[in-house]
Amino acid sequence: MTPQSNPFQDAHRIVIKIGSQLLVDPETGAVHRRWLETLGDDIAALRAAGKEVVIVSSGAIAVGRRHLGLASGKLTLSEQQASAATGMVRLAHAYQEILGTHDLTVSQVLLTLDDSENRRRYINARNTLTELLKLGAVPLINENDTVATDEIRFGDNDRLAARVASMVSADLLVMLSDIDGLYTGNPQVNAAAEFVPEVHGQVTPEIEAMAGVQLSGDSRGGMVTKLAAAKIAMGAGTTAMIAFGKDLNPLQRIQDGTRCTIFVPDANPRTARKEWIAGSLKPVGRLTVDPGALNALKSGKSLLPAGIAHIDGDFERGDAVTILDLDGREIGRGLIAYASDEAAQIAGHKTGEIETLLGYRGRDEMIHRDDLVLI
Q1: CA–CA separation, 118 and 282 (whole Å)
Q2: Fewer Cβ atoms within 10 Å of its own Cβ: the N or the C terminal residue of the chain?
């Protein structure tokens, strides 16, 4: 990978997915401490370069099951949940201990599939992660295996990482694996399989057909799930990478040019999100804004309560709404930060009055500029 094609260079927000096989010894359930220390060095270097970093880590079940004395092999759902509850504590402690040596704060966030599909919970999770990044923390994310069931679980952390990357509008998703990227076939059984350095635009059925179905030990992923994750990421405008992660300093090695597969989307995260808001969501309410607010929106600012002249419709926090001018013309669409009853209470008021009117301090913006697109 040449410096000109290094996705780390231009990325501001990076999601790193770490698999169980990289992080945990399969025999003892112990964390690979030295490897994690060098990963911490890499993350600290990214932060020093002004990058924001989110970690999506597997390994909780692999660590916890050994501490509970559970034998190797397939676990029941309740055993997985118990193992996760035990292992998450140890994993979070290891991450904080190591990143803490670089004066970095780790903040644990547990998610389920429903958190990415329920509009209100999606907005809550997005806001929490965005605020943590704004405050300089490193979010540490895992599927909430302690309460997830087969019906609501992601099932693998590759797709969880892609959903998180989409949620936070990440520029880059790095999936560290025990293989250096995508091949035209399984290189372990097909000597003629060729390495695929880049995939552009989208993950086609032909690309998907290259994936094998390898599931073993504590890993629930494989190339199939990594391609599914790359497809989700590209759809959100996020560049994705599959790279070999077992060596020390895996992120620095990628930046130094070690071989990996890069999935390059047609759009960037901001463009993809704006297109999604404008064309994929059905508005359920209407906000009429005054000329001052209209001018502010046109200059790229957020919509504040003070600029709203009228509200119509019954909507919940996180729903899509239409924005109208005083002549009733649609000027934009966005995701509302308040339910319709609360929005009506604070419409026309200054942000400093929100806490008095609602009894709690909510967001300053009725619609944040990142959640708004002008028509």
Answers
A1: 15
A2: C
Domains of the chain: 3-269 (3.40.1160.10), 281-374 (2.30.130.10)
The answer to whether 333 touches 295, Cβ cutoff 8 Å, is no
Task: Specify which residues 303 forms β-bridges with.
Answer: 367
Task: Determine contact, residues 105/74, Cβ cutoff 8 Å.
Answer: no
For residues 147, 148, 152 and 156, what is the CA-based torsion angle, rounded to 10 degrees? Answer: 160
> Tens digits of per-residue pLDDT, 207-234?
888 876 443 433 445 788 899 999 999 9
Q: Which residues neighbour 165 within 8 Å (Cβ) at sequence distance 6 or greater?
A: 15, 54, 173, 232, 233, 236, 238, 240
Q: What strands, in cross-sheet order, belong to the sheet with 13-18?
A: 106-111, 138-143, 52-57, 13-18, 172-177, 239-244, 260-265, 198-201
Tokens representing residue 329 in the block: 């013309």
Mean pLDDT, rounded, of the chain: 88
**Placement of tokens 């220390």 in the chain:** 37
Place of tokens 């301090």: 361
Helix extents (H) in 269-352: 269-279, 291-298, 340-346
For residue 367, the cross-strand partners are 303
Nearest CA-CA partner of 298 in 337, 335, 331: 331
CA angle 98, 104, 108 (to 5 degrees): 80
d(CA 66, CA 30): 9
pTM, whole model, 2 decimals?
0.83
Cα-to-chain-centroid distance, residue 369: 19
Exposure class string for 120-135: b at 16+ Cβ within 10 A, else e:
eebbebbeebbebbee
Q: Which two tokens stand for residue 245?
A: 């992660």
**What is residue 218's predicted lDDT score, i.e. its pLDDT?**
38
The tokens of 42 are what?
A: 């890499």
Q: List C-alpha distances in Å: 245 to 7, 44, 53.
A: 17, 17, 17
Q: How many angstroms separate the Cα of 250 from the Cα of each of 38, 146, 175?
A: 8, 29, 11
